[in-house]
Amino acid sequence: MDPITHAAAGIGLASLSGSKFSICNPLYISSLIASIAPDLDILYRFKGEIAYLKNHRGFSHSIPGLLCTAVLTTALLNIFYPDFSPGLIFLWAVIGALSHTALDLFNSYGVKIFLPFSRRNYSFNLLLIFDPVLMVVFLSLFYLSNSANLSLYSIPVPIGFLLAYLLFRVYVQQRIKAYLGLKYRKRNVSDIIVFPSLFSLFTWNFILETPEEYLIGEIKTYPRGFGLLRKLKKRAVKRNIIDKALNSKLGRLFKEFTPYFYVYSFEKNGMHFVKFLDLRYFNGSDFLHTATAVFDDSFKLIDSIFHPFRKNNNIRIVDETLEFANQSQ
């Protein structure tokens, strides 16, 4: 989620404490700080783009990381509010921190919630990176909790609306999966993944796998529409070079970056190229995140390049030394 939504969630949830809002209220401050603190992993950008991509939504978003965030937030605020209950500050810091990871779990990037015990990335594939409905819900919660003219019984309304909205998104997602399964029932479908698009509340992307190919497409719920964006054949691959690419630092990074990827190889001018495609996001005419591994005629890896967000964004990975150099063309 974007930082504005995280901040709105922290403030909105703090309003459930029963304490009126004030810029000096430690409960609001603790929830707000903890709700945005996990994204301080953006500081990894000072070590390079690759370091950031490897660590974003990592330990800072895990359960142990969230507890550390709550403890540090409590310790910090206890300096300025020594007479206020540290237990209450800690409680609302935990709630704020948990809201951050909970929201990130609902979009397609996901989080490594069980680090350092597991590096698996978890995602519910339900919400956009910025979802205006969530913003309305959290701001409504804040307003209703702090309005003297409204009854406390109105506070459950935005909470109920949020739950109904999430259930509705689950319903739409499952309906789309059922529709695709029926539409391609003669194609021996082995897997269907449906997830929200980058920008539209009413557009869903999908990955459909058959024995012969992967179908990448989108479905619009309003106005209704269906489109295939790309067909990727399950071509015969040179396992030797593909395995080398997958086991390289670039390959390990890409497999950790996305659970849904496609790999293929080709030859050009005596060189062997292995391409990685992140199948989750299709922007314009191509996939949003790609990577390239280059081998010479003796199958020695000579170059590894990650292309996040656009093809001409070249982040070169030096496989032998763990050094990273960014180069944009």
UniProtKB/TrEMBL annotation:
Task: Name the residues that span the membrane.
Answer: 58-81, 87-106, 126-144, 150-168, 189-207
Q: Tell me which domain of life the UniProt entry assigns to the organism this sequence originates from.
A: Bacteria
| Keywords linked to the UniProt accession | Membrane, Transmembrane, Transmembrane helix
Q: From the Swiss-Prot or TrEMBL record, give the protein name.
A: Metal-dependent hydrolase
Report the source organism.
Koleobacter methoxysyntrophicus
- List the top taxonomic levels of the source: Bacteria, Bacillati, Bacillota, Clostridia, Koleobacterales
Recorded name of the encoding gene = yfhP
